[in-house]
Amino acid sequence: MSINPNSHNVKSIFSRKERGFVHLVGAGPGDPDLLTIRALQIIKNATVIVYDNLVSREILQLVPNEVQLIKVGKKYNCVSTSQCEINELLVTLANQGHIVCRLKGGDPFIFGRGSEEALVLERQGISYDVVPGITAAIGCGAYSGIPLTHRGISRGVTMITAHGGDDSYQIEWDALTHLDHTLIFYMGLHKVEWITQCLINHGMDFNTPIAIVSQGTTNQHHHIIATLKTISEKLYQVSIKSPSIIIVGEVVNLAELINWYGIKKENNIHYEGVM
Question: Which top-level enzyme class is recorded in the Swiss-Prot or TrEMBL entry (predicted)?
């Protein structure tokens, strides 16, 4: 959906003339209990919230009724609001005097384009701050029982986006396969076969375990586990929805042993959160 920052709907939200403020807020991976206290405070006190498609419905339900919501989400193979339009919208709202919560899934500075928006606000002389959030890799790994590092198994983590900005974007596959790191691929659900084949072609054992986590940390949290060789076939047998994240490495084998969230769901155990 295209957003016109000069449209009547946007202009009429508030008529205050003093300059506003933009909060670039990480909403975490989906579970509202994983919001930071600061993020929740901003959600409750903003005058307008500009949010992405990755922000969960449960988190949006925390927004007060009087707060204007503007969706600018991007979705695979769908018409989306361009980043330039989002930048212009944030500037327009701030110049109208709004307290803007720019709400992003995960962390705004990890594949969230938060830094791009911060640079625009900086150039325009608009006051802003950045509120970190739990990135999808950490949240999805924890809820799937997959530690991203583990002594004797993985001494590091490398996060990669499978979605490049243009044709010049390249992944250094040789470097990745020899790092002895857990590999995390963001935005890679529709490129699983390409990712696994590239890893195998550049020397990674085809029996290396891989997990795909779908709608991580939400009530619809689901993950499947296979190997680089078998994951494509397994994807044909099950339904995996976006948003999702891919985890590659021997740490995936620990998921069965650290199955705390699966046990919680099976037994309908509810832990009281702060919301």
Answer: transferase
With DSSP H G I counted as helix, E B as strand and the rest as coil, what are the percentages for the chain, rounded to 5?
30, 20, 50
Residue 14: the pLDDT is 43
- The domains of the chain are located at 8-134, 137-262
> And the tokens for 39?
């993020």
pTM for this prediction: 0.88
pLDDT surpassing 90 at residue 74: no
Paired with 70 in beta bridges are: 50
Task: Encode pLDDT of 22-58 as tens digits.
Answer: 999 999 999 999 999 999 999 999 999 999 999 999 9
pLDDT of residue 262: 82
What's the CATH class of domain 8-134? alpha beta
Q: Which CATH class is domain 137-262?
A: alpha beta
> At which residue do the structure tokens 């198994």 appear?
153
